[in-house]
Amino acid sequence: MPRSNNAKLPPLLWRLVGVAVFLAVWQCAALFVKSALILPKPLQVVSALSQLLTTTSFWLSVAGSFLRVLEAFFLSMLIGLVSGAMSGFYPQVKAFMSPFITVVRATPVLALILLAMFWFPSSQVPVFSAILMAFPIMHTSTESGIHAADQKLVQMSNLFHVSKSTIFWRLRVPSALPYLLSGAKNALGLSWKVIVAGEVLSQPRMALGTGMQDARLTLETQSVFAWAITTILLCGLSEYCFGLLANRLSDRFQALPREDKGRGGQ
Amino acid sequence: MSAYVKNLKKSFGSLDVLEDISFELPDSSIVSILGPSGCGKTTILNIVSGIFKADSGSLDGFEHKRFSYCFQEPRLLGWLNAEENLRFALSSLMHSRKDSRDIELRMERFLGESGLLEFREYRPNQLSGGMQKRLALARAFAFPSDILLLDEAFSAVDLKQKIELMQAFLRLWIDEKPSVVIVTHDIHDALFLADKVVVLSQRPARITGTLNIDIPHEKRIFTSSELSKYEIQLYRLLGFDHAGNSAQPYQANALGESKDSR
User: Fold this and answer.
1) Which of A163, A181, A240, B138 is 20 to 30 Å from B152 by CA-CA measure?
2) What is the DSSP letter of B240?
3) Domains in chain A, ordered, with CATH?
């Protein structure tokens, strides 16, 4: 099929059409419901959001939640990498960890948050819950990544007496990288969702979830929407930034097809 | 001192692959194992190099030898460029700064011999299949070894490149003279390179005969009529008559060739 230069335009166009249709449906539904308390119009949400943007407490909440997400993300990465690597290398550790991982995966996030509220100060409840929800993802990805190295390449390396550490850094880590990156990306997205859900219930100071809950209690539905949209945008933005970083890493370590240099020879 | 492969047997599950394989690998000589595709030639190399264990039989004189191996597939690390791939394989030899310098020179020489010097910064997926093969071959040569194992190393390149590559191989071999085992299904590869050709049957592989080629490597040219005499004998050992038809299973002794001693 011939590809035109603006082959990228249609998807963008369709995306815009998708957004427009979504907004139109929302507007129609709001007109039909006729109650800003139940479903505010898009413009009402925009104005609520623009009002929020001018308050200091909004930005403090953004900063507070963002820091909690970072904390949860890095800790779950660290724990997941270590436990996943251990169970990738040692079948005993894998067997030992598997009941725990299964239970954690099956636990409803809200049950976990409610329990955590007995154990931790309100600002750390979301972080604890997010770590517990996100680290199994990193654990499983790391475990798969450990086994991702092509055995034929390992055989080749052993035949040439390549040292264990060189094999680890130059063969095993690059082979595991796609698994680690996709695990980390999922863990990041989940961290945002769990952190905000945890904040709604535990009500720490300076938190998106707290703002959302306060707006709900004062029946400001358009503000609930505005807080939710903020969360979505922040989550999307951090995933996008992580994606940029991931692409740079993959480019360094992975054999991505690079058309720009062209193929050499025949 | 020669090394000996004695009475190797190997099966994978119920699939018998090798049945009683024996041959001698004299020091600094090139032995070619010639046989139909899928007959178990690669398995012999994998047993010799220690990747697989034989079910029975023995290897004498291979202990404490350093192997280099050019696998059937290139087995390159996709995220490293050509030069880095060589450096990875040679990394165990770099103990000091002087070693590193020697290795770098060696890499440059072998990249040059395989015609890849200007592609040294290309990653495998930016190289053609033939170039990947040449890089794998350069890696095998560059790794200093007592025994060099080549698995279909000269296939997947066009005829001109193949001849150039074989000539380059012989130049390098004359320099360092490792013992070489070349596995191939191509009669011409075997004829051009080998001191001795060991011919295998269909799976399960048995030796149908061996042929010594007494032409010095320096005097071999790809189109020599002398080689064509050997060629006819090889076709016979593979079970073809003069007209190229499949003949009765060949009786090695009838043509004055000796079956490999058991």
Assistant:
1) A163
2) B
3) 55-253 (1.10.3720.10)
Give B10's contacts (C-beta < 8 A, 6+ positions apart).
Answer: B17, B18, B40, B43, B47, B52, B54, B55
> pLDDT tens for residues B123-170?
998 988 888 888 998 899 889 889 999 998 888 778 887 888 888 788
Closest in B92, B119, B127 to A160, CB measured? B92
The kind and range of the H/E element at B112 are helix B97-113
Range from A257-261, B24-28, B93-97, B196-200 carrying the lowest mean pLDDT: A257-261
Least CA distance to B141: which residue of chain A?
Answer: A160
Q: Does A36 touch chain B (CB under 8 A)?
A: no
Q: Where are the alpha helices (DSSP H) in chain A?
A: 9-33, 42-53, 56-89, 91-106, 109-119, 125-146, 151-159, 164-167, 173-202, 208-217, 221-253
How far off is chain B from A12, nearest CA to CA, in Å? 31
> Which domains, and CATH codes, for chain B?
3-66+146-255 (3.40.50.300), 81-144 (no CATH)
Query: Cα(A64)–Cα(A80) distance, rounded to whole angstroms?
Result: 24
DSSP character at residue A171:
I
Give me the amino acid identity at A108. P
Angle, helices B129-142/B97-113, rounded to nearest 10 degrees = 140
Is B80 an interface residue toward A (CB < 8 Å)? Answer: yes
Q: pLDDT digits over A54-90, tens only?
A: 999 999 999 999 999 999 999 999 999 999 999 998 9
User: Distance (Å) from the C-alpha of residue B116 to the closest C-alpha of chain A?
Assistant: 10
Least confident of A259-263, B44-48, B83-87, B159-163: A259-263
Residue A47 CA to residue A220 CA, distance in Å, equals 12
Query: What is the model's pLDDT at position A266?
Result: 34
Asked if this assembly's ipTM is beyond 0.85, the reply is: no
